[in-house]
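User: quick one, fold this
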Amino acid sequence: MNKKFKKIIRLSLYTLLIVAVIGGGYIAWQKYQDYLREEIAQTMSIEGEEFSFQKLGEMAKRLSQSAYVAPLDNLPPSVKKLNYDQHRDIRFVRNNGPWYGKNLPFEVQFFHLGSLFQISVPINEVIKGKTRPIKYSAAYFDYGKNKINTNELENIGYAGFRLHYPLNTSAYYDELISFLGASYFRALAQHQKYGISARGLAIDTAVQTGEEFPIFREFWIERPTRRAKDVTVYALLDSPSVAGAYKFVITPGAPTVIDVETRLYPRKKINKLGIAPLTSMYLFGENTKNKFDDHRPEVHDSDGLLVQNGAGEWLWRPLDNSKYLRISSFVDNNPKGFGLLQRDRDPAHYLDFEAYYEQRPSVWVEPIGEWGKGSVELVEIPSIQEIHDNIVAYWVPKKSPEPGQELNYKYKLYWFNDFPIATKPGAVTATYTGIGGVSGMLETNKRKFVIDFDILNMKSEVEKGIATLDASASEGKIVGTHLAYNPLTKGLTAYVDFEPNGKTSELRVSVVKKGKPISEVWSYQWLP
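Assistant:
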């Protein structure tokens, strides 16, 4: 019996004496007994191996020095052959969960293997710096209508896990974050529904040789203390090109913030490395000319890419779903941040009271330290269904990593409704496009763009010509501009006529006052 265990026993005796003296303390005594049992359980259980992020980094480095070995695909047929609906019928039994009823601020639940999820991922629990595996238990699951012999499932592991937290009300543990499939994870802030996802790493996205999808090969979850405001998850990343160690410190709220620390060890030279990748869906919106036969006005999880470059300039690129693959690169040095945002929060613009697209999270990446030279890259993939994520954004270092090199990146991920940075210029809130010219004199060789800016109380400045537009095109010509006060939005609306010349063109529009920008730069890629 160790010293801490003896101390707990002595404390229990003292507490029993105090309760007896005070009287009427039965309920308090029961609560203390629960606490005592938990402390004894934790004290008795910390006999596993020592664990730390440093040790995980060393593990990743050793892994990178050996050839990549794909995870085994040896699930029992009864699980492997589950279809989508059968797999959905397997539910986690919350009351049997490993953290349930322990008065902890977080709970952990597991995803069952089967259907689309064929790779077993070991999950470990870290208690006071020591780790132990969380073994598979059939008691964690209700199999619904599925006829499965659970004796065949011993030690099969899990597909992934999710963490729950009383995010919106103290009476209910909402789903906070889930890690499921490859290196994907997605989180929620208050009053949101799942939409955009993040990934550990992107490799060769939109490259002709094909994209490589690294996986989180194993997880370690720190059991939180009773008063913890955050929870920490560690992950070992692996792929044919790279191995890596990840640390996620997750702080729920409005916004929910995830502090990410990575150590990457390439096995070979990587053509295109995508750091802090975000993955989302854009089917159609107000600026989409590739029309869909759909009763809803808009369908998307995100409607634009926002970038704050190293020079402090803010750029907004509205998303689109065109007939062709679009790749946009924003060259930079030490970016201040980038993210995929869902700015339009008006339910009348979606008319979907099942998906609730207006409640989807926006995500902002804030680099910690200097990331050097590179580019924020946006990939827009043609799509005909909303079930497919077709938007990807990430940071690409200018210098390709070499085998044996250690790469370290730190950043914050903000999941939010209201933008977490207070000081920012006037935002672009909508983009519309159509044939150029004016009513009665339309010109099919020109394109008109109408851009709404969230810049209020500027009617007088616009009428006096103090506030104007700065517009340019890398190819073709800007043949007309007009800035007007918008009585509906109370903001400003820009009208820009563009005459293309058959080449891809980068358009830029911003509102300036006395020669200085007071808005984001509206950035648009015109494809012939």
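User: anything notable?
Assistant: The longest strand covers residues 441-454.
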